[in-house]
Amino acid sequence: MTKDALARTAPLWVPSQAAIESANITAAMNALGADSLEGLWAMARSDIAGFYHRLLAHIGLAWFEPYTTTLDLSRGPEFARWFAGGSYNASYNCLDKHVLAGRGSAEALAWEGDGGQIRSLTFDALQAEVCRLASGLRSLGVGKGDRVGIFMPLVPETAIALLAIGRIGGVAVPAFSGYAAPALVARLEDAGAKVLLTVRSASRRGKAVDMLASALAAADAVPSIEHVVVLGGSPQAKNSRVVDWNALTRGQPDFIDADRTAADDPYLLLYTSGSTGKPKGAVHGHAGFPVKVQIDQYLCFDVKPGDRMLWFTDMGWMMGPFLVLGALGLGA
């Protein structure tokens, strides 16, 4: 069916020739030597390792150490290792790469609250906030491989938390901000979380929700949690495990080096909703999910540096990290 015939039968957007010529996927086709979209698909099907190797070189990821093998199947396909031998940190790729490229003053994060409040952070400012929190978490004993829960609504600090945890080699465990304590316990206990990041309260459907109460109830039920870091004020009753977010980050350095994590070092532990049984956690490495979402946003969403991307979702669902790690990784 021709484009004109399709346009008459369904509501479609048909790209102009100029849009096609400027599209990321067209640039990728040219860089990889494909003469058509079908040719690009065939290239990926025939040699997936070679396809990704050439595509990532085109997109321009920032590696501390280049990988020696794109895809290692020596242990079988069920134990595939991607980018073996490589050193890559997702937080560095989302922040430092762009700052070092001279884009520190470009907008990195834009936020509007329910009441119309507006906040905007440049890559410079976002990097500084991430480093202050990362350093604060280190002062609490968080190190490589330690799991840190994120139980927070849609505020800039939620993205900051995601990037700060990865910067020091920790493992982020995002949980849906609407969970009650039992659902939160199921995930934090399974993960063996060491620290939980949360807020005093959040607005949901125009009403204030006491998220801290749920967070503290969950922390009481999970022995591995040593600290609960609270944004927006601590409870009046003393609790030795509660740490004020602002006090934790105050006086911390604006810059710390990102941990030189291996490509397959764990970074995210993302849980299913639990609607079909016990929640199942999927482990994602620094050069796994964060790299794939950049590929998806580059090829399928045509995301370019300076673009704005909105995916209205909680950080507890995989599309939250998808938005932050993909858009910032591509400089949007």
Distance between the termini: 35 Å
Gyration radius, in Å: 21 Å
Number of helices: 14
Strand content: 15-25%
Helical residues, percent: 40-55%
Low-confidence stretches: none
List the secondary-structure elements in sequence, H or E.
HHHHHEEHHEEHEHEHEEEHEEHEEHH
| Main sheet record | 5 strands, parallel
Average per-residue pLDDT, rounded, comes to 95
Number of strands: 13
What is the topology, as strand order, of the major beta sheet?
Answer: 6-5-7-10-11
| Class computed from helices, strands and strand pairing | alpha/beta
Give the overall form. Answer: globular
Describe it for me?
With 332 residues, the chain is an alpha/beta fold. Helices cover 41% and strands 17% of the residues. Strands 6-5-7-10-11 form a five-stranded parallel β-sheet, with helices on both faces. It has a two-stranded antiparallel sheet with strand order 1-2. It has a two-stranded antiparallel sheet with strand order 3-4. Strand 5, helix 9 and strand 6 form a beta-alpha-beta unit. Helix 4 crosses helix 5 and helix 8 crosses helix 9. The radius of gyration is 21 Å and the shape is globular. The mean pLDDT is 95.
